[in-house]
Amino acid sequence: VQLQESGPGLVKPSQTLSLTCTVSGGSITMNSYYWSWIRQPPGKGLEWMGAIGYSGFTYYKPSLKSRPSISRDTSKNQFTLQLFSVTPEDTAVYYCVRSSSRTLAYDYWGQGTQVTVSS
User: Fold this and answer.
1) Dihedrals φ, ψ of 89, to 5°?
2) Nearest Cα to 42, choosing from 119, 112, 96?
3) Average predicted confidence (pLDDT) for the chain
C-alpha cells in the first residue's frame, strides 16, 4: 500500500487548507481500516487530526472543533482534508496514514507534505 499527499505548500491566514491523499495498492473502502490525517508542527510532536473509516464515517479530534473536514472520492481512491480558517499555528508537515480498526496501529504512512500558513 502506498499513500501520497498533495496540495499547496503555502496558505494564507483565514483561508482553507486542502490536501488530498491518493492511495494505491489497496482500496479505501476495504473493510477494517481507517484513513487518518496526522500533522507535526515544527519542534512539536505528532497530532492526530481525524479519520475516515471504510464505511465513510468520520472522526475528529475534539479540540480542533469544527475546523477539519475529511471526505473521500472512492472512484479515485482518494481522501481529502480541508482545514478551515487556518492560522500560522497550523504550519506543519501533514501526513496521511492508514491504521487497522482492530489494533489501531498505524501501518502505512505517506511521505508527508509541508504546509506553511503565512501572508
Assistant:
1) -70, -10
2) 112
3) 96
Q: Of 38, 32, 47, 44, give the one whose Cα is nearest residue 79.
A: 38
Sequence-ordered list of residues with C-beta below 8 angstroms from that of 117, at least 6 positions apart, any chain: 10, 11, 12, 13, 17, 86, 87, 88, 89, 90, 91
**Ramachandran angles phi, psi of 52, nearest 5°:** -125, 135
HEC states along 58-119?
Answer: EEECHHHCCCEEEEEECCCCEEEEEECCCCHHHCEEEEEEEEECCCCCEEEECCCEEEEECC
pLDDT in tens, 39-97: 999 999 999 999 999 899 999 999 998 899 999 999 999 999 999 999 999 999 999 99
User: If we measure between CA atoms, which residue out of 63, 107, 55 comes closest to residue 79?
Assistant: 55
State the pLDDT at residue 31. 87
Q: Report the residue count for the chain.
A: 119
